[in-house]
Amino acid sequence: MSSRLILSLIVIVLGMLFFISLLFSRQSSDIYYPDLVSSPSHVYNPDPMALLDLPQPVRHSYQELLKLSSRFMLNEDGSAALTAIIHPTDYGPALSHQVQALLAQTVQPEAIWITTVEDNVGNAQAWWQQLPINDRVSLRIVDKDQEWFQAARKASTEFFLLLENGVLPGKSYLAALLRMAHTPEYSQAILGSHGATMPPLHQSPSDDLDHGQKLRCLPEHNSHGEIPATETVDVLQDIFFGRTEALELLSLENYPRGANVPVGVYLSTMMRFHGSIPSVVVANDPNNLATWGDIRKKDQKSTFCSALQQHYHDNPVWHQWIRRGNALTSQRDKLAVVFIFVENAKHATQLRDLICDWSTRPDLSIHVGVAGSHYGLGLHDFARLMPSEGCRMGVYDLKLSHPHHLNSNEAISPVERARLLAEVSVHAVHLLSHLQPRTMFYLQVPGSLLSEGLDIARRTVNTPSIVIKPQDIEHVQWLPDLSVEALENWNTPEIRMVVITNNRPGSCIRLLSSLSQAHYLNDKVPLMLNMDAEADRVTIQMAGSFEWEHGPKLLRHRVRRGGLMLAVVEAWYPEGDHEYAVLLEDDVEVSPLFYSWIKYNILRYRYSPGHHLYHRMFGVSMYSQKFVETHLSGRSPFNPEDIFIETPEYELRTPFLLQLPCSWGAVYFPEHWREFHEYVADRLLDIEWNKTSLQAVQIPRSRTNRWSNSWKKLFIEMIYMRGYVMLYPNYFNFTSFSTNHLEWGTHTKQQRNSAGTFLVPLMMEPTKMLGDLPNHRLPDWDSLPVLDLWASLSTSAELVKRGRELQEQLNPCLRRNHRDEVIWEGQEKDLKCPKTLPYYSTHSTPAPKTLSTASRDLETMTISPISPDPSQPSPTAPGSPAEAIMTPLSSADDDGEDDERGAGPSRNGLVLDGPSPTPSASPSPSPSESTENNWMRKRGDAQVTPAP
């Protein structure tokens, strides 16, 4: 056995032993304790108890509290390390009774301070002289412009106790508080005897606590001070007990307490906001007044809850405090943890805005792990890099060992590498196991031990992860807009590039070059190159030699010409519901940001709560429409600004939903594309079996190619009857994520000057992509404008209604109830009657046959535009049969050649491809074809009714 092999085995064994020792060792657990730093830029741990290997505060009865393990010990003189501070409203008998109640405690405080302002020193001293002499009781003068409770920050004892005026604690109450403070369950909490839990936050602050929503108070409103079990609350009142060091959090607040905001609201909110320190109401023994926080409540009900609610409605300042606190008790279970690992100061600076934007989310708890000072980023270093306000998170120093190779050119030894990787992965596993984040985020840097260790940790804990490269940070600033569910599904969608080319190698190279320069956010993106049978040798060689660095590359070459329709339809068939395709013809060019736009939309609308509401969106366009081809007058200029500028409820730059597919760069969704395959297969069979032409409408077709981009025509048929829509961008000057050069090809037989008409600027600035959106984010689904087939404002419900009306006329086989209403559930996709004989699978297409002249004239039906004004005359010519228009026109979206597409509108509908044809005779169908063609003939009588 060679010495090199022996050395390798030794390295592996040592690495495994070190990993195991770290995994079961608790000696380095101090890295999980958040350090309390008294600096304005400090970022404090939002959930310390989760990292202390301790459970969250739970409900305990008083008897159960006595059974908890506690490390409480008295001072040598028998007192407790506690300073009690009283804030009197007057200096009289009530204050004297308070002092006597404190001095009568079974465990007495080390010091008792009575606060007074300078203007009231005389009254305080007069009262003072009447008290029995006691070294523990003293007067403390506070500045009239200073909050009285700030005096507690000067206490030298480990604990503080704040008492409002008149509160009389039972004799053993302080002993119970001190004992709880030394238990693992309550060591990090603020304790008191009265509190309230608030209902969940609403979108509007004014709705948070309307008169129909009551606070839940402890003691209960109908009780006399009895508290059967401890409970976490949002606000404490009258009594506040905790660790003195926690008061340093008050220095982090830049804004003073509002004039009428209660002290308890301020303290509880600041502790929760800056440190997520919970407020807990302590249980008492109903039969033992000595355990009560305020023995006065035995004979009088508490009124603080009703006063608290009134305070809230009368004080807008408090609205801000409550909403800043975010993690209300009612929302505690709904908070989701996101953990972010940062390696060095450069990465911290790059991620600063993203982290702070994330931290403002009310449903998230953001935690950051820094590598340590040896890596150039310790906890204090990170805190100095963060903004002093508006950014809250937990920060944990992993304190990783010093990797000597970072400061030298020496290669790291295998033993040292194994040790460092084990250290990183074990510390990360420990953090992730305790926090249980919904997702983790970090940057992947080649050769980084932290990146490699985190890769091991995430696979060990199986935590959903977002891993990007540093250069992609500016392209994912929309991450804070995504729901937790969308973040968890970051790696779920597989988006593949599908390029359709034939014999334009120059155009194809331009497209592939633009694809190569795009940012793919560290995703693996497959590339499929589909070449028709007529592809020239240069195109084939270029496709084979092209290097694709972002994922696998697949080449497909047809041996028999299929035409553009089959080239598009057969270019992709999704394997599952998480596979998406960006369909690109070779004369398209894409923006470097197109993938960011697509992924943002997919995660935002497909993987967020309520995604079932978005099932009628079949894709996302990268191109901004400048024309609409479906008007009777032919191609019409289109600018969504003209619509939204007159519609106040929509922002001028809001994206919109349009009932038209885009063939100049768009991503299509899997279930809709599979449905389209089914529909195309059925329609091709109908063309083969139906020997009649439609009597109602004759659609002109191209002089050169009757299948001119007809995949889009069939797609529009389907989406019209299903009420489907595509999302389109809406940036200034039609700035898009793709454009079309309108080059010579199947439909464009000569280069036209009009090509520039359809060129649009490409989006090149990441800040513009997000910054120009309404509120710098994609709108909610309900806020998206809906435009119909003719680019008129409509609604999703109206589109579905129109499609169903047409389906009812075309499909007589739909099941109906006793009121002759269609039962849509389960048969929404039944666009026509099922076939009887002969039977063909909808997953295969028979070989094409030579069609008669009549069958060559067969085209799809057209859909007449629905006039928004019922008073306008019907577009159907007088005396002509009613029409159901289901095909779009030849489009600039399909290549923009007027001379090829036709001269203008026909008398009966929209012009698709050329001059109006002469109606041809219609031979009678054979008996075996009658069933299959019922739905085709039925369409001759179909009519879409105008919109109301």
UniProtKB/TrEMBL annotation:
<feature type="region of interest" description="Disordered">
    <location>
        <begin position="862"/>
        <end position="948"/>
    </location>
</feature>
<feature type="compositionally biased region" description="Pro residues">
    <location>
        <begin position="916"/>
        <end position="926"/>
    </location>
</feature>
<feature type="compositionally biased region" description="Pro residues">
    <location>
        <begin position="867"/>
        <end position="878"/>
    </location>
</feature>
<dbReference type="InterPro" id="IPR029044">
    <property type="entry name" value="Nucleotide-diphossugar_trans"/>
</dbReference>
<protein>
    <submittedName>
        <fullName>Uncharacterized protein</fullName>
    </submittedName>
</protein>
